[in-house]
Hints:
about 80% helix
Amino acid sequence: xxDVESRTARDRDSHLGRRAVISALGxxxxxxxxxxxxxxxxxxxxxxxxxxxxxxGVAYLFLVVVSHFITVVIVYPWYRLVVFRVSGEPWLAGYxxxxxxxxxxxxxxxxxxxxxxxxxxxxxxxxxxMIIVMSPPLSYAIHRTWTFRDRGKV
Length: 154
C-alpha cells in the first residue's frame, strides 16, 4: 500500500514537473532569450561585416549605428508577434517605442565603446559584447512593462 501511494505521489510530481517545463518553454521569457540571441547574432554579423568591408575606412561608431538600425528593423516583427504576442495596436507606434528602448541601449554602446576601445585597448567586437551582456535583463523589463504592455489594461 505504501508503494502504491509513493508511486502516485511520484507520478503527480512528475506530471507537475513536465507541466512546469512546458509552461516555461511556451512563455515569453524563453522566446525572449531566443530572440535576444538571434538579435545579437544578426547585429554582430552586420557589425563584423561592416568592419571587414570598410577596413577602417568608416568610423566604427557609424557602423554601430547602422548595424543597430538594420537589426531593429529586422527583429521588431519577431518580438511583436512571437515574443510578446501583441495584436490590435498599430505597428508604427509599437515600433517607435521598440526603437526608443533600443536607442537607449545604442547610446550606452556609443558612450561605452570609445572608453573600452580607445582607452582600454579592447577590440571593438569584444567591447561591444561586454556592453551587450549587461543589457538583456533591463531590456526585457522595459519591453514587457512599456513597449509591449497590454494597452487595454492601462
